[in-house]
Design brief:
single chain; 4 helices
Length: 118
């Protein structure tokens, strides 16, 4: 469950980060090359990391993406707000997903134990 929730957040964040590219170029007058590197680079990182969440270390990369999204607020002011929103969503998905998995494992163990008694 944790993996699905976190992957969903990263894929939604991928769209938002990809859309920062034209904002960087047209509004903030960042060069096309750096804007593509920043916007599409972060969007690509979201896509790659969402596929790697089967590994525990990929969650660390997910946290790093959240920090990078917040840091993007230096160039695009509204990204501070969006970075905070996605950080909150990521933290919720990470923590709630882990809790659901623990509770599901406990429930399945109790059900298996009850089945053995029969």
């Amino acid at each position: 469950m944790q993996r699905r929730l976190c992957a969903t957040i990263l894929l939604l964040e991928m769209i938002v980060l990809g859309l920062t590219t034209p904002v960087l170029v047209s509004v903030n007058h960042v060069g096309t090359g750096p804007a593509l590197g920043i916007g599409l680079g972060l969007a690509g990182a979201c896509l790659v990391v969402s596929g790697l969440l089967r590994f525990r270390w990929a969650y660390v990369l997910g946290w790093a993406i959240q920090v990078a999204a917040l840091a993007l607020g230096i160039e695009v002011g509204v990204m501070v707000l969006l970075g905070i929103v996605f950080l909150a969503l990521w933290a919720t998905a990470y923590l709630l997903g882990a809790r659901i998995e623990r509770e599901r494992a406990a429930w399945e163990a109790a059900a298996a134990q009850q089945e053995e008694r029969r």
